[in-house]
């Protein structure tokens, strides 16, 4: 299941990152790695703010859809 359909306030472990190598490397540099926990702070239309490794990061729908939980 993709991060875009998750509920706000819940904590989810990352199981897989999809996409091309460049996308995977970019998400990895932001802290999105398999096994790490991510939670959704807020959703606003196609954008969301997530908390990972004590950092808040804004993601668009296309990037969030590549993070599988």
TrEMBL record:
<keyword id="KW-0408">Iron</keyword>
<dbReference type="InterPro" id="IPR053184">
    <property type="entry name" value="FeoA-like"/>
</dbReference>
<dbReference type="InterPro" id="IPR008988">
    <property type="entry name" value="Transcriptional_repressor_C"/>
</dbReference>
<feature type="domain" description="Ferrous iron transporter FeoA-like">
    <location>
        <begin position="1"/>
        <end position="69"/>
    </location>
</feature>
<dbReference type="Pfam" id="PF04023">
    <property type="entry name" value="FeoA"/>
</dbReference>
<dbReference type="InterPro" id="IPR038157">
    <property type="entry name" value="FeoA_core_dom"/>
</dbReference>
<protein>
    <submittedName>
        <fullName>Ferrous iron transport protein A</fullName>
    </submittedName>
</protein>
<dbReference type="InterPro" id="IPR007167">
    <property type="entry name" value="Fe-transptr_FeoA-like"/>
</dbReference>
<dbReference type="GO" id="GO:0046914">
    <property type="term" value="F:transition metal ion binding"/>
</dbReference>
């Amino acid at each position: 299941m993709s991060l875009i359909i998750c509920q706000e306030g819940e904590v989810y472990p990352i199981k897989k990152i999809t996409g091309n190598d460049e996308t995977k490397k970019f998400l990895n540099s932001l802290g999105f790695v398999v096994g790490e926990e991510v939670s959704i702070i807020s959703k606003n239309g196609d954008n969301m703010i997530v908390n990972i490794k004590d950092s808040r990061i804004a993601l668009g729908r296309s990037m969030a859809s590549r993070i599988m939980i």
